[in-house]
Design brief:
This protein is of the alpha+beta class. It contains 7 helices and 17 strands. The protein starts with about 20 loop residues before the first helix and ends with a helix. Bound molecules: 1,6-di-O-phosphono-beta-D-fructofuranose.
């Protein structure tokens, strides 16, 4: 039997490079900062690792009885889903074992979580699994994280002050979206990059380099069921969107709605409502990290009164109205609010 001679060169389709892995990208970026010690890099890798595990659990949740509620409520008064708890445990463990985070706050827990790594330089605020209402119905959900360099002395017990520094003091922020594919999008204060998880390799691969969001768009995202409770300026803005025949898209998972609008141009609105007069979304682990990332990608984020990143935080689980997205759309909304 004649064996056909095929010439495998580096350019052969079977030999094409897989792309830049997250680990390699982090190491490369670290070399750009001569004073960098690798702790932030390790922390980002710890978060990415926990994200891989949650990717696996989300994908097989229906097979391993991981859907449904726990029958208990979290500090927000929301019923905790099994996957909420699993995600919370996995991220806490990864950050504790990683050794770089001295403390964590989580949407799922009332108080500061002390990791015991008092020599850690960083604290992490996180929403382990955002979009809880979508967990059981296979709709995209996500993890949101925000990282600060602590202000208390290294070696000492971290305190509230480490978490209430203000959004502009974040050193890194991002999210992991568990959707049709799993993607980690983050910034360390410079560019915004997205890495798609390739489970067959167990690696995140750079798929969305240097994301710059369109300055305007035709997509608006809000819970239309709450419109009657919105203030006049918001109602006026939504009427204008309809008049302009913009597209209404609302997944009900902040990370998923934000990600779509970041790439395509659009605005996400969660105004004050009768049920949530201060807004629903949490400042420290939902609004701050997405606003930090949004501004680096050319978007705007406001509470209606001020830029989200200029809000002075006063408590761990405080809420805020959130309007975030394409600058032209956010500015025209703010004009109608004032
Ligand atoms: P959690 O699921 O983490 O509590 O997040 C809040 C959230 O689910 C956002 O993801 C989403 O955008 C919003 O609330 C949906 O709220 P509503 O159901 O009131 O529209």
């Amino acid at each position: 039997m004649d064996v056909q001679q095929i010439d495998i060169t580096a350019s052969h389709p079977l030999a094409l490079p897989v792309g830049v892995t997250l680990d390699r990208y982090i190491m490369h970026r670290q070399t750009a900062f001569p004073y960098a010690t690798g702790e932030l890099s390790q922390l980002l890798r710890d978060i990415a690792l926990a994200g891989k595990i949650i990717h696996r659990e989300v994908n097989r949740a229906g097979l391993i009885d991981l859907t449904g509620g726990m029958g208990v409520q979290n500090v927000q008064g929301e019923s905790q889903q099994k996957l909420d708890m699993i995600a919370n445990i996995r991220f806490k463990r990864a950050l504790t074992n990683g050794g770089e985070a001295c403390a964590i706050i989580s949407e799922e827990e009332e108080d500061i979580i002390y990791t015991g790594n008092n020599h850690g330089k960083y604290v992490v605020a996180m929403d382990p699994l955002d979009g809880s209402s979508n967990i059981d119905v296979n709709v995209s959900i996500g993890t949101i994280f925000s990282i600060y360099r602590r202000v208390t002395p290294i070696g000492s017990e971290p305190t509230l002050a480490d978490f209430l520094q203000g959004g502009r003091r974040q050193v890194a922020a991002g999210y992991i979206l568990y959707g049709s594919s799993t993607i980690m999008v983050y910034t360390t204060g410079h560019s915004v990059n997205g890495f798609t998880y390739d489970a067959s390799l167990g690696e995140y691969i750079l798929s969305h380099p240097d994301i710059h969001s369109p300055c305007t768009g035709q997509i608006y995202s809000c819970n239309d069921g709450n419109v009657d409770g919105y203030e006049d300026g918001v109602k006026e803005y939504l009427t204008d969107c309809r008049k302009k025949q913009y597209t209404a898209r609302y997944i009900g998972s902040l990370v998923a709605d934000f990600h779509r609008n970041l790439l395509k141009g659009g605005i996400y609105l969660y105004p004050p409502t009768k049920k949530s007069p201060d807004g629903k979304l949490r400042l420290l682990y939902e609004a701050f990290p997405l606003a930090f990332l949004a501004e680096k990608a050319g978007c705007l984020a406001t509470s209606g009164n001020q830029a989200i990143l200029d809000i002075k935080p006063s408590s761990l689980h405080q809420r805020t109205p959130l309007y975030i997205g394409a600058p032209v759309m956010v500015e025209s909304l703010v004009d109608m609010l004032t």
